[in-house]
Amino acid sequence: MLQEHIIVQPVIETARFVLRPPRVSDAGLIATHSGDARVAKGTRSIPHPLPPGATEAFIAKALDDKRDEDVWVIDGTTKAHAEVMGVISLLRLDRDQSQIGYWVAPAFWNAGIATAAVTALLEANPHQADRTFAEVFQDNPGSARVLTNCGFDYLGDAEAFSVARNSTVPTWTYTRKM
Fold first, then answer.
1. Count of domains for the chain
2. Which of 28, 72, 95, 138 has the most CB atoms in a 10 Å sphere around its CB?
3. What CATH number did the domain enclosing 65 receive?
């Protein structure tokens, strides 16, 4: 049985940025960053090229009261950084489990943003999950390092379909007991 939906998401403050629910006004920056082929090809679900209306549909789904995935924007404006540096999400799974996903805009790669965002979300644990899962494409070792740096353990190999690549891609799956 799935957990009750969390209608109001917490805003999570870190030393470098705030994780907050998306706003309709974020559409332009999210589209700019997620429309980058390097970002899209690192995800399962972002198409490339990004079709008109895709970002608006993503935001509408993220704000829907009946959603099964909570989405946060990595917002650096309180620390004199960019308003949208990336996106991080938690998908509700059964048995008090969640799956984390994230992307960071290329301008902020190799700056510890993803590690800080994953750490903050895990520490907040807004789903009150007992276990969190994650997967990364095997050609993205940087994202794998983020997960291991955040205490995830390697679980095994699998594969997942990438919309941007229009193909199945080998993945590494990770888990973390909360």
1. 1
2. 72
3. 3.40.630.30
173 domain residue, yes or no = no
pLDDT digits (tens, 9 = 90+) for 8-40: 799 999 999 999 999 999 999 999 999 999 999
Q: Report yes or no on 176 lying in a domain.
A: no
Please give the backbone phi and psi of residue 101, each rounded to the nearest 5 degrees, phi first.
Answer: -140, 155
- Structure-token match 């940087």, residue found: 142
Containing domain of residue 34, as a range? 12-129
Instruction: Compute the residue count for the chain.
Output: 178
Cα 58 → chain centroid: 13
Q: Which residues contact 172 (CB under 8 A, 6 or more apart)?
A: 135, 136, 138, 144, 154, 156, 157, 158
Q: Is the residue at 86 inside a domain? A: yes
pLDDT at residue number 3 = 45
Closest CA relative to residue 114, chosen from 136, 91, 138: 136
* 157 in any annotated domain: no
**Digit-coded pLDDT (tens) for 91-141:** 999 999 999 999 999 999 999 999 999 999 999 999 999 999 999 999 999
Considering Cα of 141, then 112, then 97, then 162, what sign does the dihedral take?
negative
